[in-house]
Amino acid sequence: MLSLRSSTRLFCAKRLAYQRTVYSQASSDLKRVFSKIDDLKPRFIKRLKDAVAIPSVSSEPDRRNELFRMAQFIKSESEPLGVTLQQKELGLQDGVTTSKGEPIPLPPILQGTLKGSGSGKRILIYGHYDVQPANLEDGWSSDPFTLVEKPDGRLVGRGVTDDKGPVIAWINTIQAFKEAGVEIPVDLVFCIEGMEESGSEGLEDFIKQEKSKGFKGVDGICISDNYWVGIKQPVLTYGLRGVSYYSITISGPSEDLHSGLFGGTTYEPMIDLTHVLSRLVTPNGKILIPGIDEMVALLTPEESGLYDKITFTINDLKDALGNDTTIHETPKEALMSRWRYPALSIHGVEGAFSSPGAKTVIPAKVSGKFSIRTVPDIDLKKLDQLVFDHVEKSFASLNSKNKLKVELIHAGKWWVGDPNNWNFEAARKATETVWGVEPDMTREGGSIPIALTFEEELKKPVLLLPIGRGDDGAHSASEKLDTVNYIQGIKTMAAYLYYAGK
Amino acid sequence: MLSLRSSTRLFCAKRLAYQRTVYSQASSDLKRVFSKIDDLKPRFIKRLKDAVAIPSVSSEPDRRNELFRMAQFIKSESEPLGVTLQQKELGLQDGVTTSKGEPIPLPPILQGTLKGSGSGKRILIYGHYDVQPANLEDGWSSDPFTLVEKPDGRLVGRGVTDDKGPVIAWINTIQAFKEAGVEIPVDLVFCIEGMEESGSEGLEDFIKQEKSKGFKGVDGICISDNYWVGIKQPVLTYGLRGVSYYSITISGPSEDLHSGLFGGTTYEPMIDLTHVLSRLVTPNGKILIPGIDEMVALLTPEESGLYDKITFTINDLKDALGNDTTIHETPKEALMSRWRYPALSIHGVEGAFSSPGAKTVIPAKVSGKFSIRTVPDIDLKKLDQLVFDHVEKSFASLNSKNKLKVELIHAGKWWVGDPNNWNFEAARKATETVWGVEPDMTREGGSIPIALTFEEELKKPVLLLPIGRGDDGAHSASEKLDTVNYIQGIKTMAAYLYYAGK
């Protein structure tokens, strides 16, 4: 979501430039794998390029066949490496058709296994092969579905970091083990979906159904679908905020009206909406809905101390924002606001005039969209009730004759794991081996609801192992993955599997 | 802008069903003209059908050639009747190109004259041949550019009432005089533009330039580009509100952000905007910007009495709104709110998420659009300053680090004429002759800025002579003109010219 700024700075941070390195901590087996990863770099970039070239946008029904092509591509790249992948069909997508009105199938989940040398550990790898929409007109400097290698090391294209890069990186990892003649010391189970950017439709049911079948015996889950906090310091992620997304629909006159003919004579839904929206949150982020703060877990001295250790400055945040629009003055306050406190964002209004120019319309029906990022120990059902009550009360106080409907559009729960279990331990050691530094243990402001589903359903620890940087700009028109992060990320994945099996 | 509701009711209002009538008040000359109009009804409907078939949408650059086709059509229909029309070119449109990036010419103004029998009166007829956009997907029951004659008498299609119907009606009027062998007792001057739906670009300059040339010697102006207040009672219009259209742009982070990653850490422009917008007006229409009320002309007992005479009930307003979302309980209050008090409408937000569904974006830059309908004696320059001051003060009180820009997008002044001058007198007598009732003398909530320009530049009285009904749904996907209004409207125009010349 962020553009790359001051890219020249990357060259100053020497540790982050891609180079062959001697990994003193690594075993000879791992060194052989790392060396092979270096050798295969051109092949790995080519593989990512081929993946980016398939415009597998899950939110565009007319491109649904591209999702099937993409699934097939992953299958055909993996199978020569010994991975058995099955395309699990999920039936038709609910309520969605192509522009010609034809129903469309959900993209398949790729489920499969790779038998390792048998330490007994069985690790489930989750990723997704669908991407956000991308059009040249959105501001891309070149065709978003053609991967471009920039002189500064950036690989630019839709999906390079979210999430084709990590998914292809896993395939590359397996190839490197194989070509280095080193056995992978764990069994792998794959769950690669094609609907993540569209709400992961069908995945939760699939996990529930497979927990006693294909996902049986899994010891831990590894998800690589997020980012470092900054641009230099590797991290492991043990917490995510949830998100509850709401809409407030206010309907008035039965059709859009001309403001000249009717302005001043009728209650206008858009006016009511601005009043109701303005009562949700203050400009400096204080949520005005009573009862939410009281559900937030208290900050313990132990937790408070964790934030002091994170490699993050307020200037990092300002860089990411592109200017000084930060609410907080200290990095600790900013990190806590991102990771452990709820936040309410207003996203926009549907049904009102939204084009450039001037239109003198009184919109008859408008929907304001907002969401609340949730954190421990917010009870989501209770949250919904607090939101509904507050919005209804705000609206009632307006004494408008219009009609209000407030509803939850979707909700994903927050998740916090234990950063000291074996799964994180293996990833921590892997990160140290590859990057030469201890990773920061971080949480995320964003939401990956499926993390919690895996943990709740399989009752095994989930690890979030990001390979991209905080400025990768997932979802933006400048999405990138740095070559060094891609290649070192593959090594980190390899070392993770290696240490998880030892 | 309104759909037709309870169309069956139209049959109950017997006077409004189309039928040949004996006009007892009319002179024998006028009776011959009226009879000819009845005879030519099929021809007149065909002419309107041909006009509707040309999709002359001025706001769609790729259809610019249709505007030229439409101008040509009017020319070719008028010239056999003795009207000399010149296509006055206005140069290229500022800042607008076709989808291929080609600059486009402004549509021509049709300027011309028709010499009458010479009473000395010289009347300028204004109208426009461009229309609002229309697509089948907007909810039209049939192709919007194919006029459909409904069994209940409605003529449905884009532009039938706004403003192709009235423009073609003037041509029909001339044809009826000619074929009835009756001389038109006034000289006519035409000014038919093709940019009315897109801000009348070029017209004001044209009027200023022609006032001592083509428009020299004009005694009065007649504009037929508005509607009755209701659906039964003919009206003449002697006042219009002005409109001042503003945008409030708030910019924050340099790019759109992911609300998970940044929610709670940055000032969000959309949140600021809801606060600023909510301080503009209350749900029941009270403008919160200090100083505006003080500029509104005081209500005199004489003026107050005028509203009591208007054929208008609160149920008419409810019918027009489609339900009971009226602010006022009495028709008088509602009429005054529409005609003589300012009103502030919030139209929408540009730059925020406006599609169906859920997107977790923090928009980086949003523009709220609102407008104020202005009335006597509001000073527009002073109004702008009051708006800017209030918005800036509201924003400052938020203590946000975001940036604010508030600007005027366009302004058109209010107009109030003298309903007792010869121009209105002729139209009043014409209406009585054709409809058998005295017209209500009304003002309009909407704005036709060019009315004031004509009056100020030519220093002659402007008359607004609507032929369509209040439920015609100009700009909507059910735009219609009732056949009876079309045909009786032509007769009213004919009688107006007749009486203006006597």
From TrEMBL, chains A, B:
Coiled coil: none annotated. The active site is at D130, E196. SUPFAM superfamilies: Zn-dependent exopeptidases. Keywords: Hydrolase, Manganese, Metal-binding, Metalloprotease, Protease. Binds 2 manganese ions per subunit. Substrate binds at D225, H258, T360, R373, S447, H475. Gene3D superfamilies: 3.30.70.360, Zn peptidases. Signal peptide: none annotated. Residues 238-394 form the Peptidase M20 dimerisation domain. The record marks H258 as: Important for catalytic activity. Mn(2+) 1 binds at D162, E197, H475. GO terms for biological process: proteolysis. Mn(2+) 2 binds at H128, D162, D225. GO terms for molecular function: metal ion binding; metallodipeptidase activity. The keyword Glycoprotein does not apply. Its cofactor is Mn(2+). Belongs to the peptidase M20A family. This is Peptidase M20 dimerisation domain-containing protein. It comes from Magnusiomyces paraingens.
